[in-house]
Amino acid sequence: MKRPKGRVQRVLQTSQQKEGLELSALLTNPHLQALMQAHDIVAVQELTEESVTQYLGETVKLVRLQKARDTPLGATVRNDLDNVVVSRVVKGGAAERSGLLSEGDEILEINGIPIRGKHVNEVHDLLQEMHGTLTFLLIPTSHNKPAPHRQTVMHVRAYFDYDPSDDPFVPCRELGLSFQKGDILHVISQDDPNWWQAYRDGDEDNQPLAGLIPGKSFQQQRESLKKTIPDRSQEQQGKIWCSKKSKKLRRKNTSTLNRNTDHDDILTYEEMSLYHQPANRKRPIALIGPANSGYDDLRRRLLSIEPEKFAVAVPHTTRNPRIHERNGREYHFVSRSAFETDLAAGKFIESGEYEKNLYGTSMDSVRHVVNSGRICLLCLHTRSLQVLRSSNLKPFVVFIAPPSQERLRTLLATDGKTLKLEELKVVIEKAREMEVNYSHFFDATIVNFDPDQAFQELRRLVDKLDTEPHWGCHIRNCTSFF
Ligand code: 5GP
């Protein structure tokens, strides 16, 4: 708007045309000039989101952010003596998108309200009420802003349920991300080892703001502490909304939490990668479930309907072949010592003894089916899952759960099996135990309420492995697998 006064007016001054003279008179009119000047001042204020100025002898920064109603800004604060300091900026929130707030900045004022001396809980409550344009007066951190670097995203499967509303340690409950055991999480920042920033799989498009989840070692440490210290969570509830814990509590907890102990037996997250099975190397399907849940019938049905597509791995045994049996067809017949050598070398996925003979399914047998282009169907005990998953066979694990006790009784009766009430209860209880202890290994669960429907569902799952990539346990170098 200053330009007409300069270049345009110079042109107009020499103009002899009527319109030129008229425009020149208009632009030099004091009222119009004042109007343009006012416009310029307002425009500068509107556009400038950050400006540096002096405040009580300090160099301060004026930052303007837009905050939607009932949406967190995506930053947490902590008290540093009397000061209120930005402790974290969460990816995807208004604070992060603006690029104007940094970890370590001290907040002096928000919309003219003095902040120094306030407890972080008060600041949180204040911010929760505010929306629209927020003006922050900040003392910028003296630490240099780290150069923005591309964080590599880590994909994990959670091995535990997490509810931030029930967690007295989360730095900000609104920023906490709830998840359930088995969920896939995309971890986008591990800058704070205690509180990672993550999205739940599928949420990242409609939920721009990342959430806080406990970091792996933090979770392991507090799980191990839970076993030794009585639960004080009720006591601490509600005291640390969007804030760090009080100094006293923080010091106490960190000293205990940072004890360098090995908690690798406490399962937290498992790194996963997206895997699309090659057309000629199909993932083995492992069916898991308690006896009488119907998993064996499902396997039989798949094998009988499409024998060219599905196959079982030929097991090993130390018993002698029967008259009609051929080595490598029904079984690989091996000596006891050969079996035991392979067993000790970890070549079996599972094994057992029956009437003084050893039986077992080897990795190589499964590999043989996979290399033939067919889908290897396995019915496994849960204890074999860990071994199978740590191989590079990329199994797809389907848990076949029984329906309700009454429905199970009806289904088994249709098959001519009459189980006592106690036996039915054992099936249900066994299934529950399996879910509690192993559900993090399940890629899918089918409740066998109706055997036909369960079969169709299993078929759909198997077909989807051809058309869609799936999350599988992360094994580097998987292109060279087999
Ligand atoms: P058979 O000697 O009559 O063929 O089988 C005897 C038992 O060994 C059956 O109960 C059968 O289920 C079990 N068996 C067969 N193959 C395997 C295997 O690969 N692993 C285990 N653990 N048991 C097997």
Description:
The chain is of the alpha+beta class and 482 residues long. 33% of the residues lie in helices and 24% in strands. Strands 11-10-9-8-12-22 form a 6-stranded antiparallel sheet. Strands 1-2-7-5-6 form a 5-stranded antiparallel sheet. Strands 14-19-13-20-21 form a 5-stranded parallel sheet. Residues 315, 319, 350-352, 354, 359-361 line the site of guanosine-5'-monophosphate.
Quote the beta fraction: 15-25%
Read across the widest sheet, the strand sequence of neighbours is 11-10-9-8-12-22
Low-confidence stretches: 44-48, 233-260, 476-482
CATH architectural designation of the largest domain: 3-Layer(aba) Sandwich
What is the total domain count?
Answer: 4
- β-strand number: 22
Query: Which CATH class of the largest domain is shown?
Result: Alpha Beta
> Helix count?
15
Defining key terms:
482 residues, alpha+beta, Pdz3 Domain, SH3 type barrels, 6-stranded antiparallel beta sheet, 15 helices, 24% strand, disordered C terminus, binds guanosine-5'-monophosphate, L27_dom_sf, MPP5_SH3, MAGUK p55 subfamily member 5-A, Guanylate_kin-like_dom
